[in-house]
Structures are given as structure tokens and as C-alpha cells.
Hints:
Elements: H1 3-42, E1 48-62, E2 66-78, E3 85-97, E4 100-101, E5 106-108, E6 111-113, E7 118-121, E8 124-131, H2 136-146, E9 148-163, E10 166-167, E11 171-182, E12 190-193, E13 196-204, E14 206-208
Antiparallel strand pairs: 1-2, 1-13, 2-7, 2-8, 3-4, 3-5, 3-6, 3-9, 9-10, 9-11, 11-14, 12-13
Amino acid sequence: MSAKECGHEDDGRKKLYRRIFAVVLGFIIFVLFLILLIWLILRPTKPHFVLQDATVYAFNLTGGATLTTTLQVTLTARNPNDRIGIYYDKVDVYASYHSQQITLPTLLPATYQGHKDTTVWSPFLYGNSVPVAPYTDVSLNQDEIAGTVMVNVRVDGRIRWKVGTFISGKYHLFVNCPAYINFGGRNNGIAVGPAVIKYQLIMDCHVDV
């Protein structure tokens, strides 16, 4: 085989490789465009969370330096989408007071939520002798005088969207639910045991995805 024939053969291979690469690249671009188009048409709406109630077993400040908290809360999450499902992969719930986390995170069970479905969770939140900022004692005394303590129930985790057979990557879910707990003359809770009070709240939560 002459050098000229070898050169023609190399040129042919290069053209073939270029065509294969162009076809593969075009296919990938088409698939990505199709996924984007479906995503834009369906426009996923973030889930709607409601804090239904909170049962207070303990909320005690000791020595002005540590706070012991035991709560059970009921959270509902509704998927408002008609054609999109939601996977809740790793979702934690915890309580905070004046922007300080006062309980350990409680892991919710992994859940798939179909179209228009509602999921209910009732986790316990525990914080035993949690160190808090020095000003917490003053803030809690002021809340006692006002007759209302606001504890934030927060949800922090990862979710995925499901459209047909397509499942998206993970998105950060952050939910903040204010729980207004009244006591003293304004106590509107229900005694469900010795020193255990249940508060019906029905509070809409702020959701970020």
C-alpha cells in the first residue's frame, strides 16, 4: 500500500470518528433539551408544610446556661403537583429557640410522595441540657411575662423530583415552622398527662427548595 493510499485511509477514519462524535453529541444535547423542556412545562411547585400540633413534655432552663427540651410535633407535607412526585431522601427535624438549635435532629423515614399526596410525620424532638447563649435566660423571662414562647420547628434535608421515569438530582429542602406556645393565663393547651400539654397550632410553614 502506497503512502498516498494510507493517507486517504487515515482521512476516512477521521471523518468517520467526527461523524460518530457529532451524532453522539447531538443525541446528548437533544436529551438534555427534552428534559429541560419537560421541566419548564411541568414547573414543579415546592411542597406545602403545616405544623399541626406540638406536645410539650419538657421545656426547662437550668441555671441560665442549659435548656432541656422534649417535644412531639405533628407535621404534614402536601405535594401540590399534578404530574410530579417527590422523594424525601434524608430529612431531619429539630427545634430552635431564638436562632439556637435546642434539640438533636430527628431523622424522618425516607418517603416517596405521589401526585397531590399528603404525608404525616409525628417525630419526638429531644434536647437534654443543651448549652445556650447567656441572653437566653433574659429572653425566656420576657416570654414568660408576655405569656407566649415561640419555638421554631425546622426541617432540613434533601429531596428529588420524579417526572415519569425521570428522577432529578438532589435539592436542598429547608422548612421553618413557628410554634407559639402559650402558658399561664393565656394557656390554650390540652393536658394529656402529668405536666404534659398538647397545643393545636395549624401553622403554615415557610418552605425553601
